């Protein structure tokens, strides 16, 4: 659906776009990137931005410290896409499945990429070592360490498993270091608790690295990372690199955590008003959960933002107006329960922007960004990829 002309008389280019579509504010993006780079540089460690949220070479080139990286990816399709475009210093930060090793090897050979993999079990280590021997390619490997029980990884105190993985990798592959992700930080909001989570992540990383080194294994890289812990770490002594991804865009979950402000969020979904249900206090748009994703990450936070905060076409948030309900292709705008705010006057054809709960999930619904500069014209398109 094509949006109506801008009744405010501002030639912003949005009225010609088919909705729903994904907008990216370049100025806010640049500010978010600079803020994290300053934070990491303050600690004197390397930064390896995670490209899983952006999945775009244009964003990557703004985020990375050089055209070749370093960078982190979450799918091998991302690794192929970025390697083809000259990003060759890559960590594939999802536990490796043995049936993906040939594809990893092809990326390394075809684009001469230094692509490292991650694992946390003896079975994976044996498979990687066997593949490395058979191919003649000593694959660089990180051992994933679990700092907080959130997801995958070896417990930092499990010295036997750490040593066992190191021994098996030594039979053909190369141990590059340990890699951690403090995922439980996403459930926090108190700055002190977030600082403690960052310190817990750091201590777990050092404990695992020291265990490996004491057993005679080199462990040159000690890699940690999540947007909340990267934002709130007080020091990173002993850490060699930090990874983070969603900080680039920000979203309502990160705002609820305290990792960004709502005003920092630089991606939004442009939607068109297609109807009204005045007796229910609803405005209907063409952006349902297919456009926003089903992510309801703020539902467990202090402020439930529904499926997103509603803004005018210039990006200014309406007071207490959210996407309260969503069907596949219909979004229901309503005033937050308990608020005395009023619905804005939005005739059929009006354009609104919706700030997402989870930038990664919302962006995954699209194959391009329509790039704007603040309140300026949306005249540039940046590609993005999806899939595995």
Automatic annotation (TrEMBL):
Cross-referenced Pfam families: Ala_racemase_N (PF01168), D-ser_dehydrat (PF14031)
Entry-linked SUPFAM superfamilies: PLP-binding barrel
InterPro entries found in the cross-reference section: Ala_racemase_N, D-amino_acid_metab_enzyme, D-ser_dehydrat-like_dom, D-ser_dehydrat-like_sf, PLP-binding_barrel
UniProt organism field: Methylobacterium komagatae
Similarity-based family: Belongs to the DSD1 family.
Metal-binding listed as a keyword: no
GO MF term list: alanine racemase activity
Enzyme class: isomerase
EC number(s) stated in the UniProt entry for this protein: 5.1.1.1
UniProt keyword terms in alphabetical order: Isomerase, Lyase
Identification of the protein by name: Alanine racemase
Residues in D-serine dehydratase-like domain copies: 266-373
PANTHER family: D-SERINE DEHYDRATASE (PTHR28004:SF2), ZGC:162816-RELATED (PTHR28004)
């Amino acid at each position: 659906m094509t949006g109506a002309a801008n009744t405010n008389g501002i030639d912003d280019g949005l009225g010609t776009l088919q909705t729903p579509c994904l907008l990216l504010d370049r100025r806010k993006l640049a500010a978010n990137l600079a803020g994290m780079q300053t934070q990491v540089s303050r600690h004197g460690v390397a930064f390896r931005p995670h490209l899983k949220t952006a999945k775009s070479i244009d964003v990557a080139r703004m985020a990375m410290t050089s055209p070749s990286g370093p960078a982190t990816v979450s799918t091998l399709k991302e690794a192929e896409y970025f390697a083809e475009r000259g990003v060759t210093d890559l960590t594939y930060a999802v536990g490796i499945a043995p049936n993906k090793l040939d594809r990893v090897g092809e990326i390394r050979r075809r684009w001469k990429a230094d692509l490292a993999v991650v694992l946390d079990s003896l079975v994976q280590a044996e498979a990687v070592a066997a593949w490395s021997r058979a191919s003649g390619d000593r694959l660089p490997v990180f051992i994933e360490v679990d700092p907080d029980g959130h997801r995958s990884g070896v417990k930092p105190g499990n010295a036997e498993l750490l040593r066992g993985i190191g021994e098996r990798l030594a039979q053909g592959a190369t141990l590059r270091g340990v890699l951690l992700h403090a995922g439980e930080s996403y459930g926090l909001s108190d700055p002190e608790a977030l600082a403690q989570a960052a310190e817990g992540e750091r201590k777990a990383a050092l404990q695992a690295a020291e265990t490996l080194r004491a057993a005679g294994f080199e462990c040159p890289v000690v890699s940690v990372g999540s947007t909340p812990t990267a934002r709130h770490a007080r020091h990173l002594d002993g850490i060699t690199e930090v990874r983070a991804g969603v900080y680039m865009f920000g979203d309502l979950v990160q705002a609820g955590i305290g990792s960004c402000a709502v005003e920092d969020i630089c991606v939004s979904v442009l939607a068109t008003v297609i109807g009204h249900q005045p007796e229910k206090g609803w405005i209907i748009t063409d952006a349902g959960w297919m456009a926003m994703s089903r992510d309801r990450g703020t539902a467990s936070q202090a402020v439930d933002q529904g499926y997103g905060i509603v803004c005018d076409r210039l990006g200014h948030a309406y007071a207490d107006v959210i996407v309260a309900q969503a069907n596949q292709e219909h979004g229901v705008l309503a005033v937050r329960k308990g608020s005395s705010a009023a619905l804005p006057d939005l005739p059929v054809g009006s354009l609104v922007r919706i700030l997402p709960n989870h930038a990664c999930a919302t962006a995954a619904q699209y194959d391009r960004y329509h790039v704007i500069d603040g309140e300026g014209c949306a005249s540039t398109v940046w590609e993005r990829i999806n899939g595995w």
